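Methods, example record. To illustrate the input and output format used throughout this study, we show the complete record for UDP-glucose 4-epimerase. The sequence lines were provided to the predictor; the line carrying structure tokens was produced by it.
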Amino acid sequence: MTKPIAIVTGGAGFIGSHMVDLLVQRGFGVRVIDNLVGGHERNLAHHASNPDVVLERRDIRSFQPDDALFRGSRYVFHFAGIGDIVPSIDRPVEYMSTNVMGTVHMLECARAAGVGKFVYAASSSCYGLAETPTREDHPIAPQYPYALSKFQGEQAAFHWHKVYRLPVNSIRIFNAYGTRSRTTGAYGAVFGVFLRQKLAGKPYTVVGDGRQTRDFIYASDVAAAFLAAAETEREGRIYNVGAGRPQSVNRLVELLGGEVTYIPKRPGEPDCTWADTTRITTELGWQPKVPFEEGVATIVASIDDWRTAPLWTPESIADATRTWFAMLSDEPRRDSDA
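The corresponding predicted structure is encoded as:
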């Protein structure tokens, strides 16, 4: 019997590669699109001998609507894009081009192929400095270009749903973590920074006082939510995905073990992220399965994956976030800075 086909954009990346794993387990053939700028072939190495997993190394903006790769596909899971938050302040055009227009290219390919469902990887950063727990109908208030680009990509997806009748659902991901998270490039998520510092025996660079909390959700739980959003008959829906149990950065440090050095709190970032997941648990029956302590232990067991990652120091972080502080600080800027 012919296997159903799913497209996973960004499938050699962090969450995308976990999506590929789940789809293979569920009997899908998977076509992966990834330009390998943020993703890595090693994330798919365990599928190397599987002829049902095919990697297409291309930029999502290079696809035309009639591209043969999409023909016969049942679902499209769209993770591809630029995920680093801090550098978006310096490179807004690149972020808008990739995260918005790249999404439009994928929507057109999905529309031409007549796919059964397009599931968009949105970001909880669209809520900005939100009230918590945060529901899907919370006002939208992006604080930086990354957040704006991800929200506008989501708007494009729902526009294609409204105008072209493309079946679309969107998952607003809170603080995803897990194995295979990015180990190279710009200053980024707390796990990548801390794991490399742990390997080097250096203090963890804790932003602020470490009491800020994040709704950490393990990557395999995120993948399960995406599959549920694809398989449901519902469409045109937005779903928050988080564990619903915010954890402090100090708790993460406690689990990792080690010394701490404190660096200034960044403007434009919330003290707490906390997903109200009532909608997805009620409508799709999804529930997170990986407790935070178990997820952290799983990552630590694979800590060697971060051995070649950048080693961030208070000085290099200050340099990487200089523009961020200049643009997002509440302090008045000089005319020359405006």
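Annotations derived from this record:
The two ends are 62 Å apart (CA to CA).
Residues 92-113 form the longest helix (22 residues).
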